[in-house]
Amino acid sequence: MTATKPLTTFSYVSFDVVGTLIDFEAAITGAIDSVAVEAGVDLDLEKVLSFYGALRSEPEAELFPDDLARCYGRIAAEFGLPDTPELRTRIVEAVGDADPFPDSAEALARLGERYRLIAMTNARRWAFERYDAKLGHPFWAGFTTDDTGTEKPDPAFFHKVFAHVEATGGTPEQILHAAQSQYHDIGISRQLGMTNAWIERRHGQAGYGGTIKPEAVTEPDYHFKSLAELADAADRAAGN
Fold it and tell me: pTM for this structure?
């Protein structure tokens, strides 16, 4: 841990949602594996995830999770799975209805007692509303790609959040940014001068799974293996 500021310094915690709070990889592999089982096809699900992650960096990529329809078509062709409009919709809906990680809701509830929580997600608003409900509606504010008109790691996404915080009496320096994705969040938050916490959900696993691979790994200010560890650290910092 190489913290530059203590956790008691912050008034806000902003979060990446998909991959940090919501287990989208389990939703993708579960949905695609169910199709594979029905079709009698054996899959290496880590290879499927890596292939999906590469597809997400293509210029023609659409917004998440709607883009799963396009991606599934490519995955089906690559791995010998059936491909129909109904199956594409099934995959999109499954990922749009993905579940939280086991620790997410409880940790957010604890963090919400100390900070204003801000959701910053590249998911579309329709999917975020489902995720938010499963997490227990913990957020003081929520920003989706539909709201910002862009996707992380575009700095414009972050500046939309900064403007909202400033309009309500805060400053960007009071925000701790917590996220799993080095590509979408940790690198750019460092470039923008934010203090960040890397929630390394894939610790102990090789590769980047369904997330786009970063050009370089950014050393975070705080490094945790789960959201519960961040909540625990915040409790200790406050003397609890």
Answer: 0.95
The residue among 157, 154, 95 whose CA lies nearest residue 128 is 95
Half-sphere exposure of 201 (CA within 13 A, CB side): 26
Reported as a single tens digit per residue, the pLDDT across 63-72 is 999 999 999 9
Structure tokens at 230: 């961040």
Residue 203 has pLDDT above 90, yes or no: no
Per-residue pLDDT band at 127 (split at 50, 70, 90): very high
What mean pLDDT do residues 147-161 have?
Answer: 97
- DSSP string spanning 137-203? S--SEEE-HHHHSS-TT-HHHHHHHHHHHHHTT--GGGEEEEES-IIIIIHHHHHTT-EEEEE-TTT
Residue where the block lists tokens 């530059």: 4
- Could you tell me which residues are beta bridge partners of residue 179? 198
* Parallel, antiparallel or unpaired: strands 12-15 and 116-120: parallel
